[in-house]
Design a protein that fits this description.
Length: 332
């Protein structure tokens, strides 16, 4: 396999001044980034996505890098999702869902009532405080920032797998004219070093925190200059309703349980099952067949990380919860 070359490097600031200089550089780059047409972003990210298809150097590197922590099948499934997620159709659909229209950041248009004109503007420089539990987290953070014309600081987690840096290298490779990469910095410092956290709180126009409780506590909204969005921690929940095709749904649910080895907030840790006649017949069937589906996955995808997947002896505890208010009644 040929190696993937890039002049990309992770910034490891030695002083607070180093990090402030990084923000200053990105602030200048953000002005140029805001001028880039949306179609150029789509083309660039589409080419970037194709670099992760099976048989490519990046795909092989990623599989080799991640297979010690996740099963090979799980890594390949995640990479397939990455390729799909970076396709122009998927990106446009996501942006349309979030902003209402894909050209919101480019042109004035009449609002839905036709009484005024509306246009969106980027915040400027956004700091993304990444978690280390899901290796695609940096990809999501980077794509969201660039698509909304925001320069971005990706702060790596202490448990970072190395995939975010590899992805950034691939972006540098496809961005031949440097339309985007000057507005990107991948940084690493110990979260306990408050001098660096203080720079982020004082310099970032927006802060998105993906980590756990400690990361959230480090960036309270009242101490930050810009807007703050907290995304963690979360509890993944699955729901099975009466009338669903269990032969199709439960293998899919089992795969969701297994994919990230229970490390992601999207990993269902609690399953709510509708029990319309209060006989427990459907919940017991779901428990039995979900256990069997997990056993099949365990045989096909041996756990290579911290999680030992549930076996045929999986035990279930049943609690009745009104479907209308499941979260509140569970005390979560």
């Amino acid at each position: 396999m040929s190696s993937v070359e890039s002049n990309f490097e992770v910034l490891r600031p030695r002083t607070a001044a180093d990090l402030r200089d990084c923000f200053a550089r990105l602030r200048v780059a953000s002005r140029e980034l805001a001028k880039q047409p949306f179609d150029q972003f789509l083309e660039l990210l589409d080419e970037l996505g194709r670099r992760w298809r099976p048989g490519t150097a990046y795909h092989q590197q990623a599989v080799e890098m991640m297979s010690g922590m996740l099963s090979r099948r799980a890594v390949e499934a995640a990479l397939a999702g990455l390729v799909l997620g970076l396709s122009p159709a998927a990106l446009a659909m996501g942006l349309r869902h979030e902003l209402g229209r894909t050209d919101l950041l480019e042109t004035w248009q009449a609002d839905e009532r036709g009484i005024g004109l509306v246009r969106g503007y980027p915040l400027g420089v956004v700091a993304q405080i990444l978690a280390g539990n899901v290796f695609l987290g940096g990809v999501i953070a980077l794509s969201q920032s660039l698509l909304t014309h925001n320069a971005v600081v990706l702060k790596l987690s202490r448990e970072d797998s190395g995939f975010t840096s590899l992805f950034a290298k691939a972006l540098h490779e496809v961005d031949r004219n440097q339309r985007v990469t000057p507005a990107l910095a991948v940084c690493a410092w110990d979260s306990r070093e408050e001098e660096f956290n203080e720079v982020v709180r004082g310099e970032a126009d927006g802060i998105v925190v993906w980590g756990g409780a400690a990361a959230v506590a480090a960036y309270p909204a009242e101490r930050c200059r810009g807007r703050v969005i907290h995304y963690g921690p979360r509890l993944g929940i699955g729901m099975v309703l009466a009338g669903v095709d269990l032969e199709q749904a439960l293998p899919a649910l089992a795969w969701d349980v297994a994919l990230w080895e229970q490390q992601a907030c999207s990993s269902p840790r609690l399953v709510l099952v509708e029990d319309p006649d209060q006989s427990l017949s459907l919940p017991r069937r779901v428990a039995r067949e979900l256990s069997a589906a997990l056993t099949k996955i365990r045989a096909a995808v041996p756990s290579e990380g911290a999680l030992a997947l549930m076996s045929a002896h999986l035990g279930f505890d049943f609690s009745r919860v009104p479907l209308e208010e499941p979260i509140r009644n569970l005390g979560l």
